[in-house]
TrEMBL record:
Entry-linked InterPro entries: AMP-bd_C, AMP-bd_C_sf, AMP-binding_CS, AMP-dep_synth/lig_dom, ANL_N_sf, ATP-dep_AMP-bd_enzyme
Superkingdom assignment: Bacteria
Lineage of the organism: Bacteria, Bacillati, Actinomycetota, Actinomycetes, Propionibacteriales
Domain AMP-dependent synthetase/ligase positions: 44-417
SUPFAM superfamilies linked to this entry: Acetyl-CoA synthetase-like
Protein name stated in the entry: (2,3-dihydroxybenzoyl)adenylate synthase
Residue stretches making up the AMP-binding enzyme C-terminal domain: 472-548
Pfam families (alphabetical): AMP-binding, AMP-binding_C
Length: 575
């Protein structure tokens, strides 16, 4: 364990401002019993005391009861503060799906530190910018895989970001990182537990309406926007989700995509741990073998991307799914084949639609087959407010069944991003509704208004759940010395839903190869999920009447090409 730094510590770099909820909204949500009066650390302690002997979290190697998770995260909180971190400091988190990640997450919250939830796939292009913007004092990284490469990366972050002092190794074993300011979970768990009461963050002014976690947007331009999630509203987000799926102490909730990002927190971590249920962790990076974990652990419910299940074939799939009480599908509407297949195994199949900025729509478990098959359901809170408007006609309210842009406001939907007032002015209405950029239609089903997702206004590519901003990728392509014009569009993909296709014009008219693009993006240390996966070189690109590149035509073109190639492959295979 590093020795305590007794030097006078520098004040943490100031976090950029972000809009908070209006006072009248806070009072309304609290009076209705939606927002509590405790921090997330206090909420978790209360649940842990009620369900002390029940399993709280398991992965392929470890399992902890609520009492053990509570004690371990107390020790981690003590160790983090004893090492010199201070209440309010931000910690960028690049962590995988493990028990250690959950221990650290609660340890950070108990210490009054703010986790900034980044992707493991992020490179310096993203991490350096995010860490600098939030003034991160520590960077936590999982070294359970590609340890040599990732340890070098972490040390480079410390060198390149002036505010980063500490590195935290979230995986077990001896430290693989260099320096006196390296912390490991194994060391932090040994922190003297008697000291934890002295570090209660609420004693230092942290309250239920303060910043708890920073999440990332899908990225509307440049690096992702920073999303402030507050203690009371974020915990309520999880409670409302748990109520929609009737999660209770006997449940075991699996999560197979990154747990510390918003879908993991609101749809798995908080629902499980606000209800006394067990959280079961594994990673789809291991492929479909994760279904063995789901089956062996007796999972009763989980959120899953439709595209990852459609066509999935694994010997443990039926055994895993037939043990579920429910499964909620997201990302794209399930095919009839997938819906019927899962229903035939005895599981209640529903749909879910949400975003890191807040709003969650989900089909109730007891709703009709029509609602669960053809819509993403209804808002999870009675206090969610939804408008569907025609953005081309001064926000005219759309009639039932008429597609329009989804605008939302409510008890867990943010009122602005961190340090982005100019962007906020574009995407939030004067009365606080968030313009999602998603196109939906309200339809009457089961006597209520449910919602059907029609598409997106924003040019985001949904690659297996990760949002790729076309404008950011285009900007990076234009840095290539041979590229004079670029347009990036989504092309259909059976496994991931969408992948990025780059249309480019080169200075000499010769084709730009995919290998050249990969080399270019690697040199700029861009996360691999953002790299174009197909390149089409043209001598000109179609344009609209006002001179803009007609990306809709390009998207239609590549969709037809991909469909034709798929048909050719299928017909050749048949022969």
């Amino acid at each position: 364990m590093p020795t305590v730094d007794t030097r006078a510590s520098e004040a943490a770099p100031r976090l950029p401002d972000f809009p908070t909820f209006p006072v009248e909204a806070v009072e309304r949500y609290r009076a209705a019993g939606l927002w509590g009066t405790r921090t997330i650390a206090q909420e978790f302690r209360a649940v842990a005391s009620r369900f002390a002997d029940r399993e709280a979290v398991v992965d392929r190697e470890r399992r902890l009861t609520y009492a053990e998770l509570d004690a371990n995260s107390d020790a981690i909180a003590t160790g983090l503060l004893a090492a010199g971190l201070e209440v309010g400091d931000r910690v960028t988190l690049q962590a995988g799906n493990s028990v250690g990640t959950i221990e650290l997450f609660y340890g950070l919250l108990k210490a009054g530190l703010v986790p900034v939830c980044t992707l493991q796939a992020h490179g310096h292009h993203e991490i350096d910018s995010i860490a600098t913007t939030v003034g991160a004092r520590a960077h936590a990284i999982d070294l359970s895989e590609r340890a040599d490469e990732r340890s070098v990366f972490a040390e480079e972050v410390r060198e390149r970001v002036a505010s980063v002092v500490h590195l935290i190794q979230t995986s077990g074993g001896p430290s693989l990182l260099a320096g006196d300011d390296v912390l490991t979970l194994d060391e932090l768990r040994l922190s003297p537990p008697h000291a934890v009461e002295a570090f209660l963050p609420e004693a230092d002014g942290v309250g239920p309406d303060d910043l708890a976690v920073v999440q990332l947007s899908g990225g509307t331009s440049g690096t992702p926007k920073l999303i402030p999630r507050l203690h009371a509203e974020y915990w309520y987000n999880g409670i409302a989700t748990a109520e929609r799926w009737s999660v209770g102490p006997e449940d075991r909730i699996a999560h197979l995509i990154p747990i510390v990002h918003n879908a993991g927190v609101h749809a798995a971590l908080w629902p499980a741990h606000s209800s006394g249920a067990c959280l079961v962790l594994d990673s789809l990076a291991r492929g479909l073998d994760v279904f063995r974990t789901v089956a062996d652990e007796g999972v009763t419910g989980m959120l899953m991307a439709s595209s990852l299940l459609d066509g999935a074939d694994h010997p443990d799939l039926e055994r895993a799914v037939s043990g579920l009480r429910w499964i909620s599908l997201s990302g794209s509407a399930p095919t009839s084949r997938l819906f019927d297949r899962l229903s035939g195994w005895g599981v209640t199949v529903g749909q879910n639609f949400g975003m890191t900025e807040g709003i969650v729509l989900a089909t109730p478990l007891d709703s009709s087959d029509q609602m669960r098959r053809h819509t993403v359901g209804t808002p999870i809170s009675a206090y969610d407010e939804i408008r569907v408007v025609d953005p081309a006609e001064a926000d005219r309210e759309c009639a039932t069944g008429e597609p329009g842009e989804l605008l939302v406001r409510g008890p867990y939907t943010i009122r602005g991003y961190i340090g982005a007032p100019e962007h906020d002015a574009l995407v939030f209405t004067p009365d606080g509704f968030y313009r999602t950029g998603d196109v939906v239609a309200a339809v009457e089903v089961d006597g209520v208004l449910a919602y059907r997702v029609e598409g997106r206004i924003k040019e985001l590519i949904n690659r297996g759940g990760e949002k790729v901003n076309a404008a950011e990728v285009e900007s990076l392509l234009l840095e290539h010395p041979r590229v004079v014009s670029a347009a990036v569009v989504a092309m259909p993909d059976l496994r991931l839903g969408e992948r990025g296709c780059a249309y480019v014009i080169t200075d000499d008219g010769a084709p730009l190869t995919l290998d050249e693009v990969r080399t270019h993006f690697a040199a700029r240390e861009v996360a691999k999920f953002k790299w174009p996966e197909r390149v089409e070189t043209r001598t000109e690109l179609p344009r609209t009447a006002v001179g803009k590149i007609a990306k809709r035509l390009l998207a239609e073109e590549i969709a037809a090409v991909v469909a034709n190639e798929g048909a050719l492959v299928e017909s050749e295979g048949a022969r």
